[in-house]
Write a sequence for this structure.
């Protein structure tokens, strides 16, 4: 599929007088070498590829032209309606309500039309609180932890600035999120130092005196350019099979990718611990609230909630916490790891999330209903896709481009039975428990299935999985009291003595 390939023509040279060669470095990390007889054809092909791979306008992109016969355009776009999810919460707890204050995307351009907020706060107060947050991202509910009735909120940084501005409406909104006498935790995804420095630029973080019921914690995470450089370095290191062991380890270390994984998982565990163990409400934000914030809130939900670990539940989570929540996919996933263009907005935040989920799946092999293949498919489709699901930066842009009317939904393709079968984990057993990952450096591994995908064949691994699938299926088909029955009941992996996460700054 040439179009998922998004090539950068790095070199084109004359092989013989009458032929040429084109090297394509693709967004999915594949490298292709094309030998083309005929110099003129070679030049023509390279020109077309260059033109097709640098389409700027969203509406000229492939999803707007892709029309598979077996699919209908409108299918899939209504699979995970946000309103239903929020309405469900609003019926379970009277303390929260659905608000359409952002119906026209005027209060916050990067939020969806419907958001869920404390019942005690009216829309006017929300509007004022929005003006006190970067990009209008006022605190809204991200997840309701049924078991304990605690909530996870997210926002962007408050615009406190050098003069320590206050906003009574924002203070009212945050105290309405807590029940009487409850306390909450604010998890800032920047270091205390960085949060303080942000005041010089008009941002900042909630002070103890203005928000007395909230206690602030910091879980500093890397973002932006340093994260992109980490990705580029790791991919470079993985491609070089001539490295000695020492050189490989030193390159792996200097890429810092595993350290970023550890940071993301630790901060997500911190948020989950505050909710599950301290029974407290949690607000997460960094600066813009569209990147590391979503990384933490989405991961915390996979850790806490078994629903988010099912195939459809996970898709719903991506829809809510990444796509509708306004993660700028168009900016962040423009070029992938091989581009030398210094794109200011590019960063593999979503890939880091997928890698964290892969680490969870490796530590809890029975607890995710989907397999690695789904994560790989999602990685590819965020960077280049025939479907419109990951296009644009926000719901507002998607409405303007009529993405839902003019492109197909990735979910409607993924949920066809033939596709679903490929993405299910044969070992899955429903596990109602929280899955606390180990975040020790020793427990985190290179995601070979992604980073070594084009370098070594996965044939033997694929065969092993096919065999596991066969064993599980034949086991399930066996008659009730057969001897094999005993083996069918795999223990949920949460019963295994996993080491608990140690978080120095958790208390
Ligand atoms: C290359 O492209 C030009 C302009 O589109 C066209 O006239 C020419 O026939 C092409 N050459 C080949 C060998 O396809
Ligand atoms: C919160 O969850 C814990 C662990 O499941 C449980 O022991 C506790 O009773 C719950 N608290 C509330 C208020 O539901
Ligand atoms: C990967 O390494 C090979 C040689 O080991 C080199 O020819 C190729 O260009 C490299 N690919 C990338 C994308 O750097």
């Amino acid at each position: 599929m040439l179009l998922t390939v998004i090539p950068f023509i790095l070199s084109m040279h004359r092989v013989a007088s009458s032929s040429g060669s084109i090297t394509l470095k693709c967004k999915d990390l594949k490298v292709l070498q094309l030998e083309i007889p005929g110099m003129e054809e070679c030049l023509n092909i390279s020109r077309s590829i260059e033109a097709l791979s640098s389409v700027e306008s969203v509406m000229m992109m492939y999803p707007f032209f892709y029309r598979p016969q077996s699919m209908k355009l409108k299918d899939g776009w209504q699979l995970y309606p946000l309103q239903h999810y929020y309405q469900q919460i609003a019926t379970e707890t009277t303390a929260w309500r659905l608000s359409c204050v952002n119906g026209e995307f005027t209060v916050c351009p990067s939020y969806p039309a419907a958001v869920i907020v404390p019942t005690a706060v009216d829309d006017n107060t929300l509007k004022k609180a929005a003006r006190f947050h970067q990009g209008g991202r006022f605190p809204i509910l991200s997840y309701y932890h049924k078991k304990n009735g605690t909530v996870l909120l997210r926002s962007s940084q408050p615009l406190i600035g050098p003069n320590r501005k206050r906003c009574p409406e924002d203070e009212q909104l945050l105290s309405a999120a807590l029940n009487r006498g409850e306390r909450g935790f604010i998890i800032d995804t920047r270091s205390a130092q960085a949060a303080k420095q942000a005041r010089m630029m008009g941002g900042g973080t909630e002070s103890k005196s203005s928000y007395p019921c909230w206690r602030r914690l910091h879980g500093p995470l890397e973002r932006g350019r340093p994260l992109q450089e980490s990705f580029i370095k790791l991919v470079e290191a993985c491609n070089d099979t001539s490295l000695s062991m020492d050189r490989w380890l030193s390159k792996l270390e200097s890429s810092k990718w595993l350290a970023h994984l550890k940071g993301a998982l630790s901060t997500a565990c911190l948020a989950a611990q505050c909710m599950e163990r301290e029974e407290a409400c949690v607000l997460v934000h960094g600066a813009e609230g569209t990147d590391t914030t979503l990384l933490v809130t989405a991961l915390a939900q996979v850790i806490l909630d078994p629903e988010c670990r099912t195939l459809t539940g996970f898709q719903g989570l991506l829809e809510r916490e990444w796509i509708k929540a306004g993660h700028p996919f168009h900016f962040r996933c423009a070029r992938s790891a091989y581009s030398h263009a210094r794109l200011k907005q590019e960063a593999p935040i979503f890939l880091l999330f997928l890698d964290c989920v892969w680490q969870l799946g490796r530590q809890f092999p029975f607890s995710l209903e989907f397999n690695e293949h789904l994560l790989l498919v999602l990685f590819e489709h965020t960077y280049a896709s025939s479907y419109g699901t990951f296009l644009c930066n926000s719901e507002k842009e998607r409405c303007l481009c009529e993405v839902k009317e003019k492109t197909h939904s990735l979910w409607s393709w993924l949920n066809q039975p033939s596709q679903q079968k490929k993405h299910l984990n044969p070992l899955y057993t429903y596990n109602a428990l929280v899955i606390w990952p180990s975040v020790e450096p020793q427990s985190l591994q290179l995601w070979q299935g992604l980073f070594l995908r084009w370098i070594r064949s996965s044939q033997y691994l694929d065969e092993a999985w096919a065999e596991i699938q066969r064993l599980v299926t034949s086991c399930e088909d066996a008659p009730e009291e057969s001897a094999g029955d005993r083996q069918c009941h795999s223990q949920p992996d949460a019963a295994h003595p996993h080491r608990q996460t140690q978080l120095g700054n958790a208390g």
Remarks:
- The longest strand covers residues 8-16.
